[in-house]
Amino acid sequence: RGRAAGTERGERLARTALLGWIAAVVLGLTVLTVGSYASERRVSAAIPARPPLEVQITANQWWWDITYKNAVPANELRTANELHLPVGVPVKVTLKSNDVIHSFWIPSLAGKQDLIPGRVNDLLLLPTRTGQFRGQCAEFCGTQHAHMALDVTVEPVASFRRWQQAQLAPAAPPSTPLAQAGHDLVMSQQCASCHAIAGTPASARFGPDLTHLASRRSIAAGTLPMTRGHLYAWIADPQGVKPGNNMPYIGFDSAKLHAVVAYLQGLK
Amino acid sequence: MLCLLLLPEAALAHAGHDHAEAPGWTLAPSVTLPLAITLLLYGVGFARLWARARRGRRAMRRDALLFGLGWLVLTASLVSPLHEAGERSFTVHMIEHELIMLVATLLLATAGAGSMLLWGLPAAARRAFGRLVHARSIAAGWGALSSPWVATALQAAALWLWHAPALFDRALASEGWHVAQHLSFIVTSLLFWWTIARADARGSAGVAAFCLLITACVGAALGGLMALSSSPWYAGYAAMGMTPLGLTPEEDQQLAGLIMWIPGGIVHMGAALVILYRWLKPGEERHAVSAE
Amino acid sequence: MTGIARDGEALKGAELEGRLDRTWRPAPGLWGWLTTVDHKDIGRRYIYTAMTFLILGSILSVAMRLQLARPESGLISPARYNQIFTMHGTTMMFLFAVPVMEAAAIYVIPLMMGTRNIAFPRLNAFSYWTYLFGALLLWVGFVLNVGPDAGWFMYTPLSGPQFSPGKRTDIWAQMITFTEVAGLAVAIELTATILKFRAPGMSLNRMPLYAWAILVTSIMIILSLPAVALCSGMLIADRLIGTQFFNPFEHGDPLLWQHLFWFFAHPEVYIIFLPATGFVSQIVETFTGRPVIAYPAMVLAVVATGFLSFGVWVHHMFATGLPRLGYDFYTAATMAVAIPASIQIFCWIATMWLGKPRYATPFLYVIAFIVTFVIGGLSGVMVASVPLDLQFHDTYFVVAHFHYVLVGGAVFPLLGALTYWFPKFSGRMLSEGLGKLAFWLIFLGFNIAFFPMHITGMLGMPRRVYTYPANMGWDGLNMLSSIGVGVIVLGGLVFLANVALTLRRPRDAAPNPWNAASLEWAAASPPPPYNFPHVPVVRSATPLWEQGPLPVMTGLRVDDRELLITTAIDARPDIRYPSPEGTIWPLLSAIALAALFIGSIFTPWAVVIGLAPLGVAFLAWFWPKGSPTAEPVIE
Amino acid sequence: MADGVRFEGDLAALPTHGFGHRSITWWGIIGFMVVEGMFFALSFAAYFFILDKEQTWPPAPLAPPDLLAGSLLTILILLTEIPNSWIKRAAERYDLATVRKGLVVMSAAVIPLFVLRGFEFASLNVSWTDNAYGSVMWLLLFLHTTHLVTDWGDTLVLTALMFTEHGKEANRFVDTSENALYWRFVWLSWLLIYLLIYWVPRWLP
To answer: What percent of chain B has pLDDT over 90?
Structure first.
């Protein structure tokens, strides 16, 4: 009896406490929801709706096709896998996909946003400090999802302008006989049927633009750092470096490889 | 109450119907007259029954309070500037509809106002009504209508049909159609809440909860489609451009959909939980003491 | 009515039990194994099969952790790795978690309700075989290197005809059809059993909380599984007969897949979690020696969780470019789920506080559950916020979050429940020493493996990558995670050894070794084929804690399978109902169905041709057997 | 745990069958109806989801489905409720002769529906491979056709069963009553699908 009465009392107390507990939880969640709302607004309010700079990024299995929009078509800058942004300048990134769903994510700059075939998404960015960052596809997109990175450089406006000017220039012509041989190989073999190199007959859009390949930090969407050896390895055996990717094995012998790499290294 | 009735006169004096100005009160007799008559009937009926009642005055007071609140919310949504604002913003219009279907009619239905209104009628009319109700065909029709399943289907049909672009635009364009729209929302949701309350009282709590669940889904589906849609459905609102809330027409519609979906769903879920709670309550203490 | 044997004063004790045993026992030998419709046989094999898939799924996770232990590891190729993580997710969600929760209910619920078999027992047998064939299809495919590789979520268009040619995705989608048929069948059986087969007096408000959890779960399965069945059907149609549901260039939309998929897959988390809360409630009641406090609040919390879980699927899609206005609504709705969850947690803790806890192994799992689940719940509240989620989404933070929720919230209670009901299943008590050792290894290993993932996620490591670059600050944490998985494996092995060693001992468990209060403990351990010699009667929510002998009702037939149907709410005795005999036709129907489904991967005509054998098998299944005089006849 | 048992009552006098929600069959049928209702509801949602992104519905230059076959089927399927109610009532008063007659009528009455359904597929004016609009139209019609087929199959088996000795078992009358309930679900769900396939494309601009 006595124990039963004690239990009764305890139970009543616990029930009162339960009400208090529910109230506290509801209050806490309300605060968090409002906080979430406020921070979402603060993040988006920092950026004007129509920023001066617009970059269109089209995702492909497994690389990024990047176009800096310009009212003058000749001044539209096209590059791949490396994004340069001026510090302190708001930018609108337009996101599209050519094949499957990918997700654009530069953790140091903003949250992620999906690139969905048939849809166009936007992401507003405001880089606030200079530096080199890494972006990466965040939605599983097939075999080489792991190697779909994006090099990002946030730099002062002046150096961004310099970069932009350099990138707008057509590709450097081959400077040595070896590079010339490489140039001829690139134009005559399969390379030119997928890649574009401005100022040359190569103008296909199935693969990354190579006009200023050698100026980039890495090869194959962040798979390998840009060195002569890695370029060599990549062209000799793309499926060994990044299994499953869409670059075919060409079958250059070592002399031809040397020539092609010499040409590509000149594409600063 | 009286001052509330006088207020709109004053407001009307200032507000026109130009969209650039602040929305004004709606005093069309097609709206105000039925509201006033209902209140009058209830008042008379209440006074008559109060005089006769020996016991149960507490319940009467509670019902009268519920009725009064429901009537106020209904009147506020139909007559106050909210109504006119709803002709410029879909979101505000949705708030008006939700107030009617989720708050006003719920309060009115739980107030069990039928007998009061009946007693408000003159004796002869009351007897005539009684004969009418007991006529075989009407009783059968009423029997079918008072099933929670039928009421759920009717309310769902009213909700979906009126949100078809052709019909909604018509309601926006013409006051007569607009009244018909609101009337069908009021009637179907009143019927819905009434059958739910009755099913609960008669021990069919499971049926009542299930119908609430279906209704939540029906509203959520429509609201969800609106919330996820990126094109305005209704030409009437699309033509107006930015709403007074500073939203584009598609954003206005998304917000309206969200209001139908999430707060609407919460009201239906809450009602189902209340029913369930009342049903679980008895027997709660009947645990054995642990045999240790 | 003469000549019909019934239990009662004249027929009780050993003679009754012998005659009931003859009536209810499955046929002997292999034939009996193939034809049984006893819920305990089916439930046990369902549990064994699902636990086998837990082991297989865990082996896959060990493979992944070996690959991820070091950066740029070449142990597993990307193609194989993608298959492995797809198979891990698919196996754990579709072949382990949902089936094992249904399996435990198939075994326990009829006993807990005080009846002799589940409703629709032949459907139950059919459901097991269908599940088994679907699971085998997937795993045989994987072993033959045609395992799916587009993720367990199968986002279109990656899984569509253009980007996933071959049969891999077809196998996945058809496996969904199998498990959907099986899952829905069990959900309907359990709903009917809980609502109609309860012991007299067990009104809904005296029903054990586990039964409430299973009732709500079953209804959720009924409402949500059609969504995944529909979208996997659309996917297979896109792939095989050229429909355009998800093709953005022909008016279709890849996001349609995500909406339908998450409309199922978000409630699925609660389909896994709610039965686990039921386990916890039963274990807390038994090991604190008092009922869980605030019973109505607990029931409402379960119902509200079920309801809310259908409103928040969109929070898996914050990054897809949804209209921004909705964000705060989705955030609020998602956070609202925390309210019923916290009510339950509070009630359990308060019950422990007020009761006298016994720290046996099942109770340890419950404490581990509370700790882990609260951490998982808090990280869930974090990802409910859109600005945070846009950073955490698809990173290891989310991996950590849902493993805390699913392993902490469902697997720990499941292991506790298996330990708790083991004497009922087998008639033997598991060793407490080995049980506690396994518990500590699993609990510590789990936290070593998964806690660091919160940090790797915050450091920016995305999910579903087969490797990662060095020097990102992720190396050490990944190594730690891999070590943790090793510790879990050790714990799992101890758990299995405990089971194996115990099963070799003679039976020693009493009917109610833990002094629990619910009806399954009134049956012998293990229960005979007929469960209870007489129909038990319930006078409170804790019937076995009542003083005096167990009240029972008599008068069911002994020479024929018969059980009692009661009214849905008050559980008043209503109808004596015949329960079917064992038969081979559910198995043959499942084989016919499997032939149809698997054939349809290769040609749509298999659907047409396969209908004939299926029709014959169903006809033979449903056609009444025996002479009609066995039942009352209307003349 | 208490030892022994105490006899509290006897169940021998209980009936062995009951109609409606007293019957387990009813609960099974309701369960399957909810499952299939969800299939329909989600297909409707998919329909509207695809519709929402379109400028015109059906997408230009497609024409909406022709009305004749579908409307005839709608009228006919509503008329089948007459024999259906007749069977249900007869079953609930154990009138075997009427049930037998009714089931034969019902089995025959469904056949013209299949003929009309064939014409319906032909009058959609779109193939399932053309675009997502075509796919979702075919999906709706296909889903409903599977219900026609399964319920017709049930009815045929039940008809055969009722002409055997098993037709006299009380629980077969329950089965007959529940089969009639399921048919109501089949035609009720058709009314919504009819609106979606034939009228929504006409109502929308």
So the answer is: 30
